[in-house]
Amino acid sequence: MAAPSTGLSRMAFAALFATTLAAAIGNMGLVSIMPAIGRELGISDFLIASIFSLSALMWAIFSPFWAARSDVHGRKPYILIGLGGFICSMLGCGLVVAAGSVGLLAPTLVFVAFLLVRSTYGIFGSASSAAQAYVADHSAGEHRVRAIAGLGGALSLGTILGPALAPFLILPPAGQSAPMFIFAIGGVLIAALVAAVLPRDRARLHVDAPTQQQGMSVTAIWRHTRVRPYLVYGLLMSSAQAANTYTLGFLVIDRLGLPPVQAQGAIGIAMVAGAVAGLVAQWGLIGMGGLMPRALLRWGAALAFAGNIALVALPSFTALVSAFAIINLGYGLARPGFSAGASLAAGEEAQGAVAGAVSSIAGASIVVSPVLAVALYEIVPDAPFIVLGGLMMGLLLYSLFSPQLAETRRRQPSIVSCER
Question: Quick one: which of 113, 70, 366 has its CA closest to 218?
């Protein structure tokens, strides 16, 4: 993946892209197979939806910590720490599921052990948020929007590959835990790539202005009047996306009326359709249209609203897949919209804080919203999608009429250098 509009070499950007890709493949592959694993092991849908909550909370808490340290010590060491957290959590989760599958752990113990092991990803994997800050350090203005969208495309590509690959990776003798072991091996290979080809950066040490010797904290960035509106939008949008994603598996199983394992292929198809739509948004529409953040926020909310309403109105599986694709087309526009908007609204001394805040949002959005959405789904299946449609309409009106989201001017900061 080339990044011609940044100050990074092709291989350096490829390493950052692969870092984001690894996390997306592993995480979305895990999300796609957990509903079937949970029902096979006798764990309730509600607990399966909440199984990632502790990890997400740890991600939200530790992202600012790692971001602040990357401002001082450079981004590369923390990208490697993040990959290490991914590798360890995948190995641990695979061992827990394997133990549950052969009866060594009761369902309740499987849930508790998985919850605790998965939390290591939130604690250490959140250090990989330095990847966005690394890209921001080497790009400016409209180029930064496209570069962040390109990096965000790794999320969509990983969302395609994860659910598509996971069902085919359920292989003997490891069975349902096999995908987790294979994802961990992939993480090891990508960590080796990052270590070998990503230049060692000392971005903050290259800034000479007295007011920029230290980066802004993540707490302070939330008080930044130009940045905060993008972060608030991002938190709400990301929470909606998490709710849509984590209810999808249960929705597919119930609409098709199939046993959980047999429905796994259909779940993968729906997730892949959504991820392809997100990829089209981030690699196609943004690049061709040259859209800036406020336009991305508007179109993103409008499309996500339309897709959620379609999920309620159209009950067939084909309609479900199409609606989920429309929803993710919207999210695919909105995510780089608020990420790049916040980055452009902040000064260069605040890029680590912005990356930490955006990464923290990714974790915070998974703590509560999936659990609430699945709880609503168990009561009234259409309820979560009606609520999400209303939220998207609110964000659309906010992006249309809020003076706080005035278009960010295109800053043209200097590009910092890197050294091996």
Answer: 70
Q: How far apart are CA 219 and CA 234, in angstroms?
A: 16
**Cβ(62)–Cβ(362) below 8 Å:** no
More confident call, 10 vs 79: 79
Token look-up 């971001």 returns: 67
DSSP state for residue 414 in the 8-state scheme: P
Comparing 130-144, 229-243, 275-289, 302-316, which segment has the lowest mean pLDDT? 130-144
Q: How far is CA 355 from CA 43, 71, 221, 257, 400, in A?
A: 35, 10, 10, 42, 25
What CA–CA distance (Å, rounded) separates 310 from 313? 5
**What average pLDDT does the chain have?**
80
- Tokens at 102, concatenated: 């052969």
* CA angle, 226 then 232 then 234, to 5°: 105
Please tell me whether the peptide bond between 77 and the residue prior to it is cis, using omega within 30 degrees of 0. Answer: no
Amino acid 1: pLDDT: 46
How far apart are alpha carbons 104 and 410 in whole angstroms? 58
What's the CA dihedral at 108, 111, 112, 117 to 10 degrees? 150
Task: Return the H-helix or E-strand segment holding 418.
Answer: strand 418-419
Amino acid at the residue 163: P
Where would I find the H helices in 102-140?
Answer: 107-120, 130-137
pTM: 0.68
One-letter amino acid for residue 185 of the chain: I
At 59-75, the pLDDT tens digits run 878 877 887 788 778 88
Please tell me the distance from the alpha carbon of residue 133 to that of residue 233, in angstroms, as a whole number.
20
The percent helix, strand, coil of the chain (3-state, each to 5) is: 80, 0, 20
| Rama region for 74: left / alpha / beta (φ>0; ψ in -120 to 50; rest) | left
Whether the CA torsion 18, 87, 85, 72 is positive or negative: it is negative
Distance CA 291, CA 326 (A): 18
